[in-house]
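Data availability (excerpt). The following record was deposited with the supplementary files.
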Amino acid sequence: MRQGYIAVLDSGVGGLSVLNELIKLLPNERFLYLGDNGNAPYGGKSLAELKAITEKNIDLLKSYDLKALVLGCNTLSANLYREISDYAGVPTFGVYPPIEYALMLGGEVLLLATERTAERFKGIDRLTTVGLRNLARDIENNIYNARAINVQKNLLQYSVGDFVNKSGHYKTIILGCTHYFLVKNEILDHFRPQNIISGDHFTAKRVYDFLQQSNSLGNYKRFSVLFLGDFSKFNQRFSVCGGQSGLNFLKNY
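Predicted structure:
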């Protein structure tokens, strides 16, 4: 079990931020990254659609030697984690909005997520939850042209408690969709929170702890990443997520 791939599954480029956090903590592993651009975004799809799509993607991933599966998608994690874990048959880890941690920081908290993820976390005291219908799609469709991603336009469609006009009101913003990392600065500029956080690091830490406790940490000289999908797209955007960009670390097997 020490060898084998850690697979990261997402609806597109969003999960690259999770991959980056995994590499920071696990620099001696082999990674698979499956970005399902053809079905992106996931947030507006029915659970039956998502289950069928994900099972097909897992079938592809299982043609490789997997030792863990990481869902780089809040929508899948929040809604179908148990079903996906059972189907995958390998240790499976989700990425979730770190709501408890955000509330511990005090003050008002705003969760920005896809509609389906946002629905799962409504009704929590001091938490305003907003499902953005089109932002993940806009990011996925304009990753080569960041200026075309109009964050303000996506926000201004909503009037949930007039949340959009409350600059400085929220102490913490939670990015509840991994795609949103790519427009993190625009969200910061709009809301001016003290903190802006996501679940990426928390997920990577859980994977690391599991592999360490099960004596399953890899021992390769350095990490490698095999992208399944639009290779050029992922390579270009990986550096934006904070990763080490360039072909020097990418291997095709």
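Summary of structural features: The radius of gyration is 18 Å.
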